[in-house]
Amino acid sequence: MSKKINRREFVRFISGVSIASYLIYHYASQKDKPLKGVSVKEVYQLGFSIGCAYTMSGFEILQNIRKKTYKDVGFDTLLVGRFYISKKDFILARRVLVS
Amino acid sequence: MILEVSDWSSKSVHKSDVLVIGSGAAGTSIALGLQKLGVSIIVTEGGGRLYTEKSQECYEGESSGIELPYGLKGSRLRFYGGSTNCWGGMCGELNEDDFKKRDWIPDSGWPINKGDLLPYYKKAAEFLGINYSSVKNPEEVDKFKRFNGLESQSLVHTKKQNFQNVFQSKFKNEKNMDLFLNANFLNFSRVSSADKVDYIEIGSFNGKKSKIHAKFFVLACGGIENPRILLNSAEVGRSAFGSVHDNLGRYFCDHPIAPCATVIDLKGKSKNFPYNESKNYINDGKSLVIPYYRIPSSVQHKYGLLNSTLKFQEQEDEISSSAFYAWRLKNLITGKGDHKFHVKNLVDIASDPYGILKGIISKNSSNSGEGGKRIAMRFQIEQAPLRSNKVSLVSDKDSLGLNRVKLHWGFSELEIKTVETSVSYVASLMNYRKKSTLMLDKHLLERPSKLPIDLRGGQHHSGTTRMSIDQKTGVVDKDLKVHGTQNLFVCGSSVFPTNGWVNPTFTIIALGLRLSEHLARVIQK
Questions:
Q1: Type and span of the H or E element at B30
Q2: Which of B62, B170, B273, B403 has a Cα-to-Cα distance from B303 of 20 to 30 A?
């Protein structure tokens, strides 16, 4: 029996895949200077998480990460827009987007 | 025996060891505690067996600052059983920290510690027919889901919610215990030394009056009515009982409760969130146990926070201010609720008339935003005791001749800091597991941050006759006797110096049982 697709979950899925692809594109475009210790899988997972969590505003989050627009709320966590992201993920996304 | 004062034919005089004013959670627990110990008791209740507008109207008053969600009149009930008639039946105990002086919370600290209340919490659990172990150690309840990094707490649901239904047979059958209905408190009569109550005068709405003498008098009418009655005890040349240092009526608190963030599964499947309340109810074999998660003491101490808990609940989407005012206007038009509008509300309405009109017309405007569902993280936190939050009297009088109240209620920066830090802490725990995260509600992004527009108090009025070591810092002593009096006591959440995170009724009953033992000891001496 097929499972009904929730509209919200579908939007999240599409957004997640889009943002994950966007990050992989950035990662791939830096082939001549590959990011040390960062795998494609990690980049995909990060992009998919941001896409799912923030749906249509995911790209805005990436822009904020690029511009370093965030609030440090302690506990190794940053508030980017309305979205809580770990410092580790923030650093990874920034390396992919900015290096 | 249960007697109706309005049926009495002539002016009468009554006598008992203890007179309790109020038949709600506090009054009933004191009376039943004393009855067991062989002390004679009379309980007076201003209302009758059923809700009447005439009785309820005595609760009307003025307010400033933040309005109580259901207003002064709508957030408590004035008939037999008091506010247990609308009590949700949730029982939980205060944490050890709640009793301690915490330097970052001005005026915190109880004159007793949790150890003093523990035996009475156990008795309160027996009184309400719940398992005390589910209150004390929720993790031991089968299927309780622990949230790593947060302290497990619980509220346990009792079926003995409506005290009129549950306990009226006791009042009917026991010989040393009488309940007078439609027996409205009118005034205290003092003996010449002025620090001792001789008798109280009661009266019905149809003009019948009576005097009741007792050795001890206990006021048990709730967090707003207790200070109101005491403030009304001022006479020419004599200040009101408990008012010498201007603490009476001050430090009013309620529990800020509201959603603050949306849980988002990092794979987009938020409905699978395991802590969602509707999926997380558990049964301990006797009662329903509702899990709550507390910010650990170590984090509260390090960051200087109020006592704070969280729970996760499926609910409507985040509410916008236009949807909120649409809901309030709709209630005003249809006569539901007890909503009044101030000038500042009208300014908000004028700023987005189209959005509000859309909200009124929309079928989904019953306190919802866009009509969707989310898993919301809701906070329920302690309120910092503020001297400026107070119950005072106004010149307007009710139909019994008692001055009505004015309530001023507001929040400090500490509540906002507690919510913001708690959300960040939980988000960090979620990020660590890489399964979910949080999206902050809009109102907390505003600068300066605001508490949610749909914040509601829990109808847990407290603090207005606070317990203290001496009369400079409070109204009643650790035995709940009004400072500077010989035989007048107060019981209820009004004696709480701080209110913790937890719903107050279980503690009110524990305090009531403790007071009944104290009074019995004094009488038997």
A1: helix B25-36
A2: B273
